[in-house]
Description:
CATH topology of the largest domain: Rossmann fold
Order of helices and strands: HEEHEHEHEHEHEEHEHEHEHEHEEE
CATH architecture of the largest domain: 3-Layer(aba) Sandwich
Amino acid sequence: MTSQSASSEPKNLRGLLEQHTLNTPDKVFLFSEADGRRYTYAAFTSAANRTARMLASCGVSKGDKVSLLMPNSPEYIIAYFACFHLGAIAGPVNSLLKPQELSYVLANSEAKALLVHTEYKSSVEAIRDELPELRHIIEFNTEAQATAEFADAGALSSPAIERDDEAVIIYTSGTTGKPKGCLLTHGNLLANARQIAQWLKFTERDRLLTLMTLFHMNAVSVTTLTPLYAGASTVVSPRFSASRFWQIISDYEITSFGSVATMLARLLSAYPKGTPAGLKTSQLRFAMCGSAPVPAEILKRFEETFDCLVIEGYGLSESTCRSTFNPPDERRRPGSCGMPIGNEMKIVDEEDR
């Protein structure tokens, strides 16, 4: 898949999943590190379709907003693809928001439905009266339980979805004012997944690890949609744990993972002498790192201690996710955010020159 051109790829994310499900239905696409569940491409598609039927039964259709408020889990990824199937717009919500911030995001997005884990439901109930557009609050702890009655519900509507149709509304951090909802299209997400997969040479043999939160585009684009584009597989972990990290790398034969500089520093602190003995880590190609520059000393020590390259990149929500990456070869420059990976960029000063 990584060698295909933009003109030959499916025109939406539903089509991308359907393509891999048709070609490799029995290959495992998604692993859940927390509880050992695994979904083949076929099983994942069935789970997403059941969830789409559940949403459709609540009146959700193309163009409607569906907010997602959950911890990292297979359910989060299933929810995204349920929305993608219907042409609804997935709205991941930062689970760390204060009540006033949560109310603003849910109201501003005009969400029609909310898929929420029980852990966060009380926070939503406390602001329910401030959300007149929100018609359905659906507990979504375990997909199999939540969608049991929709397992044999007949045909599922599949509306026409074009590349320019919106797929995700992601809110900025709001550092210069109130958070702003960035609308990203199916074409945006497909293009970024293709660019990352081709730039970093991911293939169907790769297995990526999601440690970053799924309410940020980093985890969605880099370690979820990119392995899907490549026909590879991904492992979702509830959170980063330095004490569990290398065991996960070994158990799931991870080839790359998304990270930030603080994660690398914590791993160095926990394992100053290198990876624990007896674990399988030779397949690990590199760590992808963003959000902030990695201090030069941390980068050098990490690579020397764990024999694992650190590939830094840059991006922002408004540009889907990654705009630059260091190349994973001799052109790499430690301390640099890399090169454009398929898009046009311009560097200007304060006066736009």
